[in-house]
Amino acid sequence: MKSLPLLLIASMAWGFPEMVRHGYVNCTACHVSPDGGGMLTAYGRSLSKEMLSQFGSESMALPLAGLVRIPEPVMVGGDLRAVQLVTDTLTATDLRFFIMQLDAEMGVNTDRFAVMGTLGFDCRAFPKAMFRRHWALFRMNDNWNVRVGKFPLAYGIHSPEHHLDIRMNLGLDEGSESYNAEVSYLGESYDLFVTAVAPRIDPSRWQSETGLAVRSSFNFRERYKVGASAYSGQGPKGSRWAAGPFAMLGFTEHLYLLEEIDYAEDGITPARAGLYNYTKLGWEFVQGLHVFGVGEFAGTSHQAIGGGFNYYPAPHFEVTTQLQRTLSTSEWYAWLQMHIYL
Fold it and tell me: Does the pLDDT of residue 205 top 90, yes or no?
């Protein structure tokens, strides 16, 4: 192998779009956020044990594994992410270990209101503290929501794999959370998110950008979801926009497909313009153990195919192994990803 990085990652607790195969086409079944990710509801924690994990007790699905009783409506959680990186080339082998994320999350959730926030460390400048996400939500009724604060944009498939090119190059990966005002409609078969983006006040590539994002999708036959997203942003260094369709298809309770295609024009970083595609075809052959194939195409800068395994041994714990080959350079990459949510 020309280059072999091995990654040990415990990533942010986004949603798992693969749950579409069980009929969970909307993220609010498991998450407080209308768009998924972050704090899990009591039902979401229970579902992690019942339908996602291979093993686990009732207490393991509780906040902090049930070690401390949390009274309603208070909610607590947290994320840990670390990396063990090994790069093996023809001339050298490089080993590095570093913490990527260490966050605690807390909030209050009632029938009409929710307030959520995180407190953690900027591991690039440890021990500098940071507030990765903080927002307030008002549920006007069973369908309409208004949210303001700092959180990820509703765009495309909300994948927990933030390292994907389709997320990083579109400014949707971890660290790119923006200050937003969002209106969302969540119906039985249709949803709509409209998000106005304000300039960030903390350091970021997108810190001076304002913009507007729209995402809409349609659910049918219980396990199928198709939609489209669009974003337009304007900053002092130029403008950018992106748009494209996505699909989350649960063919059976075991076989599923995630597909997203976007085209982007980027006046801020022209090299990031072009066509993006992400494809993941997975099969759960026993509960908690998945095999999948994946393809990533980001213009001419990155084209790769590969496959691997997802394993959910216990509630809120995930291990992923993946082997990937870049088509342009014929390099091989392998990584081990670990996801932990408290």
Answer: no
Residue closest to 336 by CA, chosen among 84, 27, 71: 84
pLDDT at position 171 over 80: no
Q: Which of 232, 176, 246 is closest to 20 using CA atoms? A: 246
Residue 50 burial (CB < 10 Å; 0-12/13-18/19+)? middle
Which tokens sit at 161?
Answer: 């794999």
Residue 246 and residue 268 in contact, taking contact as beta carbons nearer than 8 Å: no
> Is 1 a domain residue?
no
Query: What is the band of 90 on the pLDDT scale with cuts at 50, 70, 90?
Result: low
Q: Report pLDDT for 11.
A: 41
For 267-301, where are the E strands, in sequence order?
274-286, 289-298
Tell me the residue ranges of DSSP E strands in the chain: 8-9, 74-88, 93-109, 113-121, 129-130, 134-139, 144-151, 178-186, 190-198, 210-220, 224-235, 238-250, 255-266, 274-286, 289-298, 302-314, 317-326, 332-341
The mean pLDDT of 198-220, rounded to a whole number, is 80
288 found inside a domain = yes
Q: Which two tokens stand for residue 96?
A: 């590095």
**Region of poorest pLDDT, from 169-178, 241-250, 315-324:** 169-178
Nearest to 111 by CA among 2, 28, 51: 28
Please tell me the least confidently modeled range out of 17-26, 71-80, 191-200.
17-26
How many angstroms separate the CA atoms of 301 and 275, rounded? Answer: 11
How large is the average pLDDT for residues 24-35? 85
40: DSSP letter: B
Beta carbons of 311 and 318 less than 8 angstroms apart: yes
Tokens found for residue 74: 């208070």
- Residue 263 · residue 242 · CB < 8 Å: yes
In a domain, 3, yes or no: no
Domain, as residue range, for 99: 8-341
Kindly state whether residue 80 falls inside one of the protein's structural domains.
yes
As for how many domains the chain has, the answer is: 1
Q: What is the CATH number of the domain that holds 193?
A: 2.40.160.10
